[in-house]
Design goal:
The complex is a heterodimer of chains A (294) and B (290).
Chain A (H helix, E strand, L loop, with lengths): L7 H6 L5 H7 L10 E11 L4 E12 L4 E5 L6 H9 L6 E6 L2 E2 L7 E4 L12 H11 L5 H14 L15 H14 L4 E5 L7 H18 L3 E5 L2 H7 L2 E6 L4 E7 L11 H14 L15
Parallel strand pairs in A: 3-8, 3-9, 6-7, 7-8
Antiparallel strand pairs in A: 1-2, 1-4, 4-5, 9-10
Helix pairs in contact in A: 4-5, 4-6, 5-6
Chain B lengths: L30 H6 L2 H23 L8 H14 L1 H33 L1 H14 L8 H8 L3 H25 L3 H9 L4 H12 L1 H26 L8 H10 L3 H32 L6
Helix pairs in contact in B: 3-12, 4-5, 4-7, 4-10, 4-11, 5-7, 6-7, 7-10, 8-9, 10-11, 10-12, 11-12
Classes of the chains: A alpha/beta (294), B mainly alpha (290).
């Protein structure tokens, strides 16, 4: 059983900024500096009638090559959080730092893979789509962009479709293009907003498998939003659980031992039950059963 | 009803399927169906039918002064084209049209780019289109003649007016219809300002922009012919509209019809060749329209 509520003290200290906070800010002993640090982040969005608080003082660290999952029910602000990290939503309070620099707007060092299939410009072929951010951001020259596009299209197994247009591809293939495009840009962190939620169950499973294989090969840093407990445990090595209305951090759990082969195992089922219990707890005041020590 | 009926448990079975050879999996459509799928053929048949109706009506009417037949009109058209007069008139009209059309397009894009980037631009565009779009371009012609004199300047002015508002309205509607995900993807790549408009908004809104361009083209063409009919010889050498007007005065009704036929033909060519080709190479190819 590896699902350990690590750093419970830290996450418990997070919601209220306190003198102890500064100590919590410093990387714990033995850990490298985090790549992405979200601290005390409060986000709000506007509807025509009101201002809604999406997240309230959320803080977590993502380290190099992490597969960090944001898990929570709808309304917990996980997608808003991801969009804030991508730079689309300015924080009301708190800060987001990537590699020591404060995030101020959207940029190609944080490429987002959205859930929707319309993220690929329909007027560009698969190869042009993958090369587009490289050229648009002026990262590399035309020749290099084409070579890199070909390389990553090959990685996701779409070489035969390099000259097809997005409307000629299936949903799973479009998401593969989106992932290839994101990887080709070689972002500091890859942001995925429920990328497989619109796919059928079989394709989703295959895509999770492929994503993990790609990670084994490229070792990118991934921040992945999902509402599926199973997906969180399979894809991630660390899962942050958010509570809804407004989104607050409920805890962080390790899941690095699980992959697609462990889905049926007792340990996996126990982990699912644990997270399930935390997601659906009726009374937030109920103390959570103490996590078994690792 | 018995609530507790359980479906019977049946035995399982396993079939080994032999390769499917009875009928071909794909078949070509019959030749007649494939021919009927050609758009130009169907449209051509419509045109032939209209010409036949016209000819029949003219024969029944039997008055060349009021309604010359299709054959007589065609003869006048061939004669006009042969002598070069009609071609010259069409050239003059199309040159003025192109200038006015381009001016309108450039202004429309400027205005909509302003509208997508600032709230003030949005208000400006919506107020101006609400004010000027309902105003017929021809109604501005007397004023334009006063301001720009008897020349192509006033024609271009009314053409710009005819193209600008419908195109700006359509383009802006197209920009607003661009999916949020696609916008975010573009900004995610680091695109801002004019690069963002050019590389994301315009291609994504191209179906709406194209329909705006088509509407603008039709408005411009009809405005030009109407303007020439009224003040056509202003610049000393008139276009197609003036040709029609002159020949009506001299009661060459077949030439009037030949002029009108050429106006229609140019409209059909632009719609079915220029716009259709552009559409096929862009929005159809990209799967944005069917």
């Amino acid at each position: 059983m590896t699902l350990v509520a690590e750093r419970r003290d830290v996450s418990a200290a997070r919601p209220e900024p306190s003198p102890a906070r500064t100590e919590a800010e410093a990387p714990p002993a033995g850990l490298p500096a985090p790549l992405l640090r979200v601290s005390d982040l409060t986000l709000e969005y506007r509807t025509p009638e009101r201002v809604v608080r999406a997240t309230h003082r959320v803080g977590f660290d993502v380290y190099e090559a992490d597969r960090f999952i944001l898990l929570g029910p709808s309304g917990c602000g996980k997608s808003t959080l991801l969009k804030a990290i991508a730079g689309f939503i300015p924080p009301v309070e708190g800060s987001i730092t990537l590699g020591g620099e404060v995030v101020r707007g959207p940029g190609p060092d944080r490429i987002v893979v959205f859930q929707e299939f319309d993220q690929l410009p329909p007027w560009k072929t698969v190869a042009q789509n993958v090369a587009f951010p490289l050229r648009a951001a002026g990262l590399v020259g035309r020749r290099e962009a084409e070579a890199r596009a070909r390389h990553y299209i090959d990685k996701v197994g779409l070489t035969p479709f390099a000259d097809s247009y997005p409307h000629q591809l299936s949903g799973g293939m479009k998401q593969r293009v989106a992932i290839a495009r994101a990887l080709a840009t070689q972002p500091k962190v890859l942001l995925m907003d429920e990328p497989f939620a619109a796919l059928d169950a079989l394709t989703r499973r295959k895509m999770q498998e492929e994503l993990l294989a790609l990670w084994e090969e490229v070792r990118f840093t991934l921040l992945f939003v999902t509402h599926s407990i199973e997906e969180a445990l399979v894809v991630g090595n660390r899962v942050a659980l958010l509570s809804p209305h407004p989104g607050r951090l409920r805890g962080e759990y390790n899941s690095h031992d699980f992959d697609l082969t462990s889905v049926g195992s007792a340990a996996f089922q126990a982990a699912v039950q644990r997270l399930h219990g935390r997601l659906f707890e009726t009374d937030p005041e109920t103390p959570v059963p103490a996590a078994p020590a690792r | 009803m018995n609530q507790h009926v359980r479906p019977p448990i049946r035995s399982e079975y396993d079939l080994v399927l032999p390769p499917f050879v009875e009928v071909p999996v794909e078949r070509v459509l019959p030749l007649s169906t494939r021919i009927w799928q050609q758009g130009w053929l169907r449209k051509g048949l419509i045109l032939v039918a209209l010409a036949l109706v016209w000819e029949a009506l003219a024969r029944w009417q039997d008055n060349d002064l009021l309604l010359p037949g299709f054959g007589a009109t065609l003869a006048a058209l061939v004669e006009g084209l042969g002598s070069g007069e009609l071609l010259e008139r069409a050239r003059i009209s199309l040159t003025v049209l192109a200038e006015g059309y381009l001016g309108g397009v450039v202004l429309a894009f400027g205005l909509t780019t302003l509208a997508v980037s600032t709230q003030f631009g949005r208000d400006l565009l919506s107020t101006l289109t609400a004010m000027f779009n309902p105003l017929p371009a021809i109604a501005l012609l007397p004023l334009a003649l006063l301001w720009f004199g008897l020349g192509s300047g006033s024609l271009i002015f009314v053409l710009v007016h005819a193209v600008l508002w419908p195109l700006a309205l359509n383009t802006f509607a197209g920009f607003q219809g661009v999916p949020e995900t696609l916008r975010m993807a573009g900004r995610n790549y680091g695109l801002t300002g004019l690069a963002y408009v050019w590389q994301i908004l315009i291609p994504a809104a191209l179906p709406a922009i194209l329909s705006g361009l088509k509407i603008g083209w039709a408005f411009a063409w009809r405005t030009l012919i109407a303007a020439e009919l009224v003040f056509g010889a202003a610049s000393g050498q008139g276009g197609l509209g003036w040709y029609i007007y002159q020949n009506r005065n001299e009661l060459y009704t077949d030439r009037v019809f030949a002029g009108l036929l050429l106006v229609i033909a140019i409209g059909l060519i632009v719609e079915n060749v220029v716009f259709a080709t552009f559409e096929r190479l862009t929005v159809r190819r990209w799967g944005m329209v069917r």
